[in-house]
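Students often ask why inverse folding is considered easier than folding. One informal answer: many sequences map to the same fold, so there is more than one right answer. In these notes we will look at a single instance of the problem. The structure comes first.
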């Protein structure tokens, strides 16, 4: 079987704005997801047995995976964007399950939307970033 020739990489002028947009989109969706989790747990969940600090503890636990990847994403690490794609599946599943609730379905829809946007933008950012670095290294 003959080896196919490699596809040429896109030009740097084509990759640079797309890298910037995908990074901004992934950071904005990460911030939106974190804000949604905080607002959801503070204002839309009733905890008659654990008022006050119970909500804070649940928020800290829910935000922990996002905080793990937040610093690397802010610094622009491609590997962190890959890990964000893996970790965001937790929030996607939670959003889908929460969307079956009759009273808080819209919060589940929002969480699912933000997690899908974060997944797609982080994945595309990683893909274009590796292509950008290959192009800078001199590949045709």
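Output (designed amino acids):
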């Amino acid at each position: 079987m003959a080896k196919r020739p490699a596809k040429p990489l896109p030009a740097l002028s084509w990759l640079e704005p797309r890298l910037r947009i995908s990074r901004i989109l992934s950071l904005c969706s990460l911030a939106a997801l974190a804000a949604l989790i905080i607002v959801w747990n503070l204002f839309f969940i009733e905890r008659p047995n654990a008022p006050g600090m119970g909500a804070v503890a649940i928020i800290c636990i829910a935000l922990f995976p996002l905080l793990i990847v937040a610093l690397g994403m802010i610094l622009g690490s491609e590997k962190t964007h890959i890990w964000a794609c893996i970790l965001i599946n937790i929030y996607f599943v939670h959003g889908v399950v929460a969307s079956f609730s009759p009273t808080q379905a819209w919060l589940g829809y929002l969480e699912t939307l933000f997690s899908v946007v974060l997944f797609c933008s982080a994945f595309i950012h990683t893909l274009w970033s590796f292509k950008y670095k290959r192009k800078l290294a001199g590949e045709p």
